[in-house]
Design brief:
The chain is mostly helical. The chain has helices at residues 14-17, 27-35, 46-53, 58-85, 89-103, 111-121, 126-130, 137-152, 155-161, 169-182, 192-198, 201-215, 219-251.
Length: 252
């Protein structure tokens, strides 16, 4: 159930219906249109507000960590799909680093491994996270839709969907501080994921935005990029909607 008020469908425009050519947005206006989606990012979701306020119980944190794992472990496949359809070597080389970041260069390394350490730090057994027994149907549906999006849409749209990075650096810093403050029972090793993301996320956001701005040569491509970012925001909202609903069931 999506309680955020957003839908996964892209609105039909009159210009689309009648085949009217639309003027290319200036770089500044295009970037502004992308940044205007910041209010749809998941930092404003009620679940994240409770997380940052220290209002989550241990079982709720565990449910969040186990379900967020499904999102984390699917990111390399999403990024691989973008690379597979991208004809630009420079972009492929740059995007490959994202897969390396998540999967690591060897076993026991990378962002996915760091998320497993967080799951263990909140009291989950690694095996129960890896076998996905706690993954909610709504979370699985939303994340799978995101991977399918990357596999079936243009590579530019796939890249643009990752522009949520523009909205996340401040959130990552705040989350790290708030979780250390409100959940002191989580060992410091559990925060390795957030620490590592702080070192790369600002640079990723700038490089991703540059790729999208340079690659969108028509208004249609610009509109598709904005719609792709909106879709990603909807995916993230849907993930938290499912987790939030399940947490309320734990309380009842």
């Amino acid at each position: 159930m999506n309680t955020s008020g957003h839908r996964f469908t892209r609105p039909v425009r009159i210009a689309d219906v009648f085949g009217m050519a639309r003027e290319l947005l200036s770089e500044a206006d295009f970037i502004a249109a992308l940044r205007d989606l910041s209010d749809r990012y998941w930092d404003r979701h009620p679940f994240h507000r409770r997380l940052h306020a220290g209002a989550l119980t241990k079982p709720e944190l565990q449910l969040w960590a186990a379900n967020r794992w499904y999102y984390q472990c699917q990111l390399p496949q999403k990024d691989g799909a973008i690379i597979a359809s991208c004809p630009v070597p420079e972009v492929r080389r740059m995007w490959l680093e994202r897969i390396v970041y998540h999967d690591g260069r060897a076993a026991g390394e990378g962002g996915a491994e760091n998320w497993l350490r967080l799951a263990e730090a909140v009291g989950l057994d690694r095996a129960e996270v890896l076998d996905q027994r706690h993954v909610l149907p709504g979370v699985r549906f939303a994340v799978d839709a995101y991977v399918t999006f990357a596999r079936t849409r243009s590579w530019i749209e796939g890249v643009a969907s990752g522009l949520t990075e523009m909205f996340s650096p401040n959130l990552m810093r705040r989350r790290l501080a708030d979780m250390r403050l409100h959940y002191p029972w989580i060992g410091e090793a559990g925060f390795a994921y957030f620490m590592s993301r702080l070192g790369v996320i600002s640079g990723e956001g700038r490089s991703t935005l540059d790729i999208v701005v340079r690659s969108c040569e028509t208004r249609e491509q610009q509109d598709a990029a904005v719609a792709a970012l909106a879709f990603k925001c909807d995916v993230l909202q849907a993930v938290l909607d499912s987790i939030d609903y399940a947490c309320k069931q734990l309380q009842s």
